[in-house]
Amino acid sequence: MKYTFDSREVGPGDVFVALKGEKADGRDYIPQALAAGAAGVIEGLEALQQAARERRRRLKAKVIGVTGSAGKTTTKEFLKTFLACSGTEGNFNNHIGLPLTILNCPDDAEFLVLEMGTNHPGEIAALCDIAEPDVGVVCSIGTAHIEFFGSREAIAEEKLTLARRAKSFALVPEDASKVTPPFPCPLPGAHNLSNMSLAYQAALRLGATPEECAARLKGFSLPGSRWRRVEIDGVGYIDDSYNANPDSMIAALDAFAAEPCEGRRIAVLGDMFELGENALAYHRKVFSHALELGIPLVIGVGELSSQCICHLAYKTLEPLKKKFRADVSAGDLVLIKASHGMKLGELVPAR
């Protein structure tokens, strides 16, 4: 049995979750779900969250919550790998996706890793009310969504709510340096090593062995457009366009500058969202860092990025798309990073 928002995915014995969205009302699809064999229907957000609370209290699984301004998906994926367990898929890390993940947790699961996202004060507390985490992992505290928090201190207060609410133990960014895993990180950059270290420490405290963690790490990769590497016509692309904030931008640029490259390094950087009144200053800091690293070609895309000092600037993506693929050559390495809404991933050619 599974719980799903999509009436097209409903099969015999499943439960359909009918929510009213901006574009459609799930209640309109209840007849379709029942006709497909749905065993039940949950109507409304409050009912969904209450069902998840009740399910959580019946679970035998240890629940691990993961949050951070940057790196929470990476840390979550490392933890799922080290513990060989299930957890948040895709971007199901909010007040809707987290309850659904809990409801779909297998009865016999030993662990459940839940990513917790927030862009407004109080959201982590609300997610903790549902998830009742046994373990909390806070991988970073930065400036993401500062538009809605007002200060880095307020962001820290929000993220550390998870650490305070954890029943068993919690790890925070300062703990990353306490234990170095005895195997290399499969992802480049000090930030990814930090994320892996926190996940490794949590896994050890939950009973995994170093040998198990090392064996399970083989073939590790991140979902979606998160440091996704492809090579097309001799050009290397690092598609990291799933999301961005000033901290993750700088970390990605540092890792990119250290990557082997036979031709030119080209950084295509797009706008970052929800940064408030100092957004332009944050963008200029990122572009200044890219130039300080000596990246030969830095391209800005977007209303804010095009106002920064760089080699080429475009207010919109379309003009760059028309000429970009002709301007790159075999041996070049291209980093693509921006907030997801900028759609910079469209610069990567289809295979």
Q: How would you describe this structure in keywords?
A:
351 residues; 3 domains; 12 helices; UDP-N-acetylmuramoyl-L-alanine:D-glutamate ligase; six-stranded mixed sheet; five-stranded parallel sheet; alpha/beta; Protein-Tyrosine Phosphatase, Chain A; Udp-n-acetylmuramoylalanyl-d-glutamate--2,6- Diaminopimelate Ligase, Chain: A, domain 1
Structure overview:
With 351 residues, the chain is an alpha/beta fold. The protein has three domains: 1-43, Udp-n-acetylmuramoylalanyl-d-glutamate--2,6- Diaminopimelate Ligase, Chain: A, domain 1; 44-216, Mur-like, catalytic domain (UDP-N-acetylmuramoyl-L-alanine:D-glutamate ligase, 3-Layer(aba) Sandwich); 228-347, Mur ligase, C-terminal domain (Protein-Tyrosine Phosphatase, Chain A), CATH 3.90.190. Helix content is 36%, strand content 17%. The protein has twelve helices and 14 strands. It has helices at residues 30-35, 45-58, 72-83, 97-103, 123-131, 146-149, 152-165, 190-205, 210-216, 246-257, 279-292, 318-327, and strands at residues 3-4, 15-18, 40-43, 62-67, 86-87, 111-115, 135-138, 169-171, 228-232, 235-239, 265-270, 297-301, 312-314, 333-337. It has a six-stranded mixed β-sheet, with helices on one face. Helix 10 runs parallel beside helix 11. The two termini are 36 Å apart.
